[in-house]
Design a protein that fits this description.
two-stranded antiparallel ribbon; 3 helices
């Protein structure tokens, strides 16, 4: 691939990324609209025919690694798994 082709490909990539961001913003606005309607109806679940829409609270547990490291640094380090990954960016 020539330098000009690479630049054109990068430009197309950046445009698609911008389009994705716009679509995500539109999807979030629609999501907020549906959540607002469900709040107004005071319901956590709504059947619409083709879809069942749910807006429910849930609880999850996560490990506070900062606190674990502060209290038991060696233990935290002993159970920390390091991974190597690649990162792609077009700036």
């Amino acid at each position: 691939m020539s330098t000009n082709e690479m630049e054109s490909t990068a430009r197309t990539y950046r445009q698609i990324q911008a389009d994705i961001k716009t679509l995500e913003e539109q999807a979030d606005a629609l999501r907020q609209q549906m959540i607002g309607e469900m709040d107004a109806r005071q319901t956590e679940e709504l059947a619409t025919g083709a879809f069942t829409i749910r807006w429910k609270l849930y609880e999850s547990g996560r490990l506070d690694t900062a606190k674990l490291r502060a209290d038991h640094g060696g233990l935290c380090d002993a159970y920390t798994v390091r991974t190597v990954a690649t990162r792609f960016s077009v700036a």
